[in-house]
Design goal:
CATH class of the largest domain: Alpha Beta
Helix content: 40-55%
Distance between the termini: 63 Å
Length: 407
Amino acid sequence: MKFRKLTAALVAGAFLASSTAFAQPAQKLSGDAVKIGVLTDLSSTYSDLAGPGAVIAAKMAIADFSKDGTVLGKKIELVSADHQNKADIAANKAREWYDKDGVDVIVELVSTNVALAVMEVAEQKNKITLVSGAASLPITNEKCTPVNVHWVYDTYALSNGTAKAVVKQGKKNWYFLTADYAFGAALERDATAVVVANGGKVVGTSKHPFPNSDFSSYLLKAQSSGADVVALANAGQDTINSVKQASEFGINKKQTIVPLLMFISDIHALGLNAAQGMLLTEGFYWDRDDKTRAWSKRFFEQHKRMPTMVQAGVYSSVLNYLKAVQTAGTDDTAAVMKVLKSTPIDDGLFKGKIRADGKFEHDMYLLEVKTPAEAKSPWDYYHIRAVIPAAEATQPLSLSKCKLVKS
């Protein structure tokens, strides 16, 4: 009789425990907190388009997610560091953050060499990376990882926006000025494919060091080529310097200067007189609609500049990461990635879905820089000439070399 009573009590206790566990799922956070690392260029070529503004964007995402700065009842912590656009510095900082400091996710990662180096470390450590600044297609193609999301744009999208539009204007002969590292090579390759597919050809190319300040010898070669288009496969301060020096040589009077990656911060630095009429492709523009305007004006209050698409991407990636942690009830990498890849994203800045290869698929925008007379207010820089649908702006999965994509 005593044995039967004891058994019944044990069964009842087990049932109660399981019922309680079902009603209140365990909330597991490593280190008893969620820690986000913004690893960016704080002092060099890309600091204007990413840098301190990326840190501000991440802080805004945390504040918008939770008024008291918590998730699942635990504190959200933010750290930041300057990778100086050097892969070894970035990889070492990633190891330190993951191993010693309890960082759960690293975001931003402008420049391809940095992104690929940190992605490799993250895959080894089973930690998450969310890339907003780097552009190269290999990030979600042959170099993809199961713990990475490429958030804002890539070289495939840039080429299918700007390069295609310029070739369709009848400008068929192209000469490339290309930053001599992985990003530049990827952008030149993808743009070349689009140019050739649309009836154009490449008549020459010059590779320049990254970063660089004097583009005179490369520009003179481009000028002597007689190409219709001088395409700039670089970014940030390198692009600004290229455009300024092309103007000084008068190259822009007979040839079309086409920056294949340009940011609103670059337009601001150049001024509308120098940049007017240029076509470019971006994933975000602050003056697109009421939601983007409202968020961007809040960003401006803190940074005194309108956000680039990289900075907007940092906000979006951090906000949706925190939502995924909340939904998963844990910061476990596999659980969070499962939520991210199965949940449609619509945060007011970006709308789309994350594919199997880790690419966040969303619309892109073909923009034309306004003339000084057309601009009605500060930072009123763009005409939106076309919306590039998400499916067109993203490499088809049927062409993917990513190990995560089933053939």
